[in-house]
């Protein structure tokens, strides 16, 4: 017990030291392009489901806006339920277009594989949720392998699922971490066989308090046998509304704790990708100004650069869904553009130099 307590004290001490280092870098002056310090692996942008189900012309314009920043990555959503609505019959059209557009802007692509088609879902209430895990993880692995083979050389990084620590994004199933680990155990070897150069990233975990917090959920994954079934972990370090110093909802400190969990489980050499980050410029108590949004983005990028063990960081999102809807948090995450294509403050801060 004493030995375990000493190990815990050392771990907490390292985490506290990292927090102090990061907070010393919080931007307190007006944010400018010269203030942007990114992780060694760079930064990028994500937009979400609209790139899978929305207007393709809008997606092209949004990715072009990313190309005018200092970003080197874009996170592209590969919706299994859209591409394979019937078993064994693929329609890659929209995703082909996204990959082509990213290529045209000189951007590297992270593919996000998510959502289960109706034919592959389980029985009962889970049929209502495309976010439910597949009934048979082998079906998911077969789809992921087909994608990895098709886009090998153009996409060499695949993120598996999105925020499985939230009940909604695992179809409200029990034992979320166990079910997600089963998916990883099936998909990791399948992708590696299709593209040995691919990096398989376990889904980005959402800020959340309690047992399913990012470090808590990751620990559950290890307990379920996840070690060896992913090449990198991922987190979504949103720190709004208070910002990095306030560490709202443990948004950043939980990333540090995830690293401690990985070290304790023999994965010290693996990175944590930050596959979503940012803030919403809405008028609710959770909203921030455009200037504060830019500040929080710059602060989290700098924090990631300071620790040295993160992968690329992805800003969510490129463009607002509905800027006029001031009471909708989810509609106002755009960092570069309003919904009517006007530039936001962060577009200047992040502009390519």
TrEMBL record:
InterPro entries with a match to the protein in the record: GH, Glyco_hydro_5, Glycosyl_Hydrolase_39, TAT_signal
GO terms under biological process: polysaccharide catabolic process
SUPFAM superfamilies per UniProt: (Trans)glycosidases (SSF51445)
Signal peptide interval: 1-35
Record-level Gene Ontology MF annotations: hydrolase activity, hydrolyzing O-glycosyl compounds
Keywords annotated in UniProt: Glycosidase, Hydrolase, Signal
Domain Glycoside hydrolase family: 57-309
UniProt-listed PANTHER family: ALPHA-L-IDURONIDASE, BETA-XYLOSIDASE-LIKE PROTEIN-RELATED
Stated family: Belongs to the glycosyl hydrolase 5 (cellulase A) family.
Stated name of the protein: Glycoside hydrolase family 5 domain-containing protein
Protein species of origin: Mycolicibacterium diernhoferi
């Amino acid at each position: 017990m004493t030995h375990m307590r000493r190990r815990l004290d050392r771990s907490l001490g390292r985490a506290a030291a990292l927090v102090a280092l990061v907070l010393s870098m919080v931007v307190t002056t007006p944010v400018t392009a010269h203030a942007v310090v990114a992780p060694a692996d760079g930064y990028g942008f994500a937009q979400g489901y609209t790139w899978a189900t929305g207007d393709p012309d809008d997606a092209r314009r949004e990715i072009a806006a990313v190309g005018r920043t200092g970003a080197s990555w874009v996170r592209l959503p590969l919706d299994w339920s859209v591409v394979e609505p019937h078993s064994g019959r693929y329609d890659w059209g929209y995703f082909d277009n996204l990959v082509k557009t990213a290529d045209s802007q000189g951007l590297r692509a992270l593919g996000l594989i998510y959502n289960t088609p109706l034919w592959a879902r389980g029985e009962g209430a889970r049929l209502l949720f495309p976010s439910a895990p597949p009934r048979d993880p082998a079906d998911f692995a077969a789809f992921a392998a087909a994608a990895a083979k098709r886009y090998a050389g153009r996409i060499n990084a695949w993120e598996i699922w999105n925020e499985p620590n939230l009940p909604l994004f695992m179809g409200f199933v029990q034992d979320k971490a166990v079910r997600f680990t089963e998916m990883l155990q099936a998909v990791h070897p399948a992708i590696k066989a299709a593209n040995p150069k691919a990096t398989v990233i376990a889904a980005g975990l959402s800020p959340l308090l309690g047992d399913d917090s990012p470090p808590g959920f990751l620990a559950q994954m290890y307990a379920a046998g996840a070690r060896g079934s992913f090449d990198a972990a991922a987190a979504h370090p949103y720190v709004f509304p208070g910002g990095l110093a306030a560490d709202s909802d443990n948004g950043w400190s939980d990333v540090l704790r995830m690293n401690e969990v990985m070290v304790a489980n023999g994965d010290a050499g693996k990175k944590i990708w930050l596959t979503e980050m940012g803030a919403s410029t809405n008028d609710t108590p959770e909203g921030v100004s455009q200037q504060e949004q830019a500040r929080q983005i710059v602060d989290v990028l700098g924090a990631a650069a300071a620790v040295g063990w993160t992968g690329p960081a992805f800003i969510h999102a490129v463009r607002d869904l509905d800027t006029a809807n001031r009471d909708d948090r989810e509609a106002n995450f755009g960092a570069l553009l309003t919904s009517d294509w006007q530039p936001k403050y962060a577009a200047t801060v992040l502009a390519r130099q």
